[in-house]
Design a protein that fits this description.
Helix content: over 70%
Distance between the termini: 119 Å
Shape: globular
Length: about 550
């Protein structure tokens, strides 16, 4: 009976209950959605409505709290703690590190929503503010695009990444979400409690990554349909996913420092080229004007936008947009956070927070200002038809914008290639992280485990697109993210307790060292004072301090 288990272990690596239970849950969902897609969609909608009605406010409060918490960690004394040895250098160069963060984070989402979100808000203003297709609607839409892709999104990734990197590189523990709970649960982390946490993490990650892969397939399908006339629909999306799957399987066969790193660097170069082309050939001055004004509006209204629940209007806008984004970010947090943790060894917490929270947010704002701002400019002043294209087919807005620029066909091909590369990078990174989670936290899971998770992710995307397309992707993200959000609250508490203990131990060590130095200095000063006093005393003074004998008495004595 032990031989099959041994053979399985040798093929898959050191997997256990978390692997088996997680695979079973995902397979059951895929089968149910494939057999009865209508029933699964109706059940998901019912759960979504209950979640949004009863605990939707919690998404907003918790996500805002994460922003303040992570910034506090980076800017306080805690920020000086290094994720590794005291003098350990970073594993990757700063540019490669940022490229991998950005590519593994929101690369596909930015390309998909860069034109689509501002134009959708332009067509239907957020929370019913203002009239559709007006300057006010455009201004409000850009502000909410900044908000949805700003500090809140990346605070999720930074929190999970910090927690995992800290326990992995400071405590030399396994890179598992459950390990971050050890300050709270103690040895119970090694029991069913810890395994339940890891299973929930894996399932949430699979749903979150599936959402992104689905969005990418829709985006590529829209571009190919425009170039070739192939119909926009499920058959084409299925073929696209098959090609993407084959490519990321090849990437999964290479080590992390070659496969994902090289793809990430290539992604950044191509994204920068596409961004630069739109900046150069588009309305450059208008774009930077949009960036400046929207940044000011975002910073001035971020608190208010963070806590809007529209309880008086009974509207669904917050559920469809802000809650979706926060849930999507939460479901991506285990994957992106774990991946960022894996590549951040040797960084200080301050470097980590600023690198994850500031640089990607700034790039996201520049991206939305460039693509969304240019689309609004062409739509308002030249009636380019971009708003109608987005209303008919959400991902078509990007290509409608590129048609307004010189060399639009070449730019369209470049954008399709960019989305494909982002998808391969995201899928490859996700399979790596899922392999870590289900292989007891090893840094290099076996290739077979990674390939298996890649196949399950692709099957998940297929059934989600089959059950309801974009709406189904949104619904499942929100549902799957809620339980993990509760776990993230506990992760924050546990991380702060762990960091506080290290700071307290460091302060105690410094206090003891200071006392020892003071004692040594006191002894040194006493010794110096004694030497000085000894040097000031005449050499003929006897040790009893009674003074030297009188010369007269010595002379008189013998005469008497």
């Amino acid at each position: 009976m032990t031989q099959p288990a041994s053979a399985t272990t040798s093929i898959l690596g050191d997997v256990g209950a978390v692997f088996r239970v997680s695979v079973a849950i995902v397979v059951i969902f895929v089968l149910a959605a494939a057999i009865a897609p209508g029933a699964v969609e109706r059940a998901a909608q019912a759960v979504l409505h209950a979640t949004a009605t009863n605990v939707g406010w919690m998404y907003l409060l918790v996500m805002t709290g994460f922003v303040f918490f992570v910034l506090f960690l980076g800017l306080s004394r805690i920020g000086g703690i290094r994720l590794g040895g005291p003098e350990e250098p970073p594993e990757f160069s700063f540019p490669s590190w940022l490229a991998m963060i950005f590519s593994g984070g929101m690369g596909v989402g930015l390309v998909f929503w860069g034109v689509a979100e501002p134009m959708m808000h332009f067509n239907d203003p957020p929370l019913g503010t203002g009239l559709p297709r007006t300057a006010e609607a455009a201004q409000t839409g850009m502000r909410y695009a900044f908000f949805h892709w700003g500090l809140h999104q990346w605070a999720n990734f930074a929190l999970v990444g910090l927690a995992i990197a800290y326990v992995r590189f400071r405590h030399d523990s396994h890179g598992l979400i459950s390990e971050t709970f050890r300050p709270l649960l103690g040895a119970r982390v090694d029991t069913g409690w810890g395994k339940a946490i890891d299973v929930l993490t894996v399932v949430s990650t699979v749903f979150g990554v599936a959402t992104t892969l689905g969005l990418g397939a829709l985006q590529i399908n829209s571009g190919i349909a425009q170039l070739t006339g192939i119909p926009y629909g499920f058959p084409a999306q299925l073929a696209i996913l098959a090609v993407i799957g084959g490519l990321f399987m090849l990437s999964a066969m290479t080590p992390l420092d070659r496969g994902v790193r090289l793809l990430s660097n290539a992604n950044m170069l191509l994204a920068a080229a596409l961004l630069g082309a739109v900046l150069l050939f588009g309305p450059t001055s208008f774009i930077f004007g949009v960036l400046t004004q929207t940044l000011g509006e975002y910073l001035g209204n971020v608190i208010q936008m963070s806590l809007v629940t529209s309880p008086y209007s009974n509207g669904a806008w917050v559920e469809q947009w802000t809650m979706f984004y926060w849930a999507w970010g939460l479901s991506w947090a285990p994957f992106v956070g774990s991946f960022i943790a894996r590549i951040s060894r040797g960084r200080t917490i301050r470097e980590f927070v600023l690198g994850v929270m500031i640089v990607p947010v700034a790039l996201s704002m520049l991206w939305f200002s460039t693509f969304g701002g240019a689309a609004i400019r062409f739509e308002i002043f030249e009636n380019a038809g971009i708003a109608d294209a987005v209303a008919a087919e959400v991902p078509a807005g990007l290509y409608a914008l590129l048609d307004q620029l010189p060399g639009g066909g070449v730019l369209t091909v470049a954008s399709i290639l960019l989305v494909g590369m982002f998808l391969v990078t995201s899928a490859d990174s996700a399979t790596f992280v899922l392999g870590m989670f289900t292989s007891k936290g090893v840094l290099n899971p076996t290739r077979l485990v990674r390939v298996l998770w890649g196949c399950l992710q692709l099957l998940m995307v297929v059934v989600l697109l089959l059950t309801g397309g974009l709406d189904s992707l949104r619904t499942v993200s929100i549902i799957a993210a809620f339980p993990f959000m509760l776990l993230m609250i506990l992760i924050a508490v546990s991380l702060y307790r762990d960091l506080s203990q290290e700071i307290a131990a460091r302060d105690e060590k410094a206090r003891v060292l200071e006392q020892r130095i003071e004692r040594l200095l006191l002894r040194e000063s006493e010794r110096e004072a004694a030497e000085k006093a000894e040097a000031e005393v005449h050499p003929t003074v006897p040790e009893n301090g009674q003074g030297a004998p009188s010369t007269d008495l010595e002379e008189d004595g013998p005469g008497r």
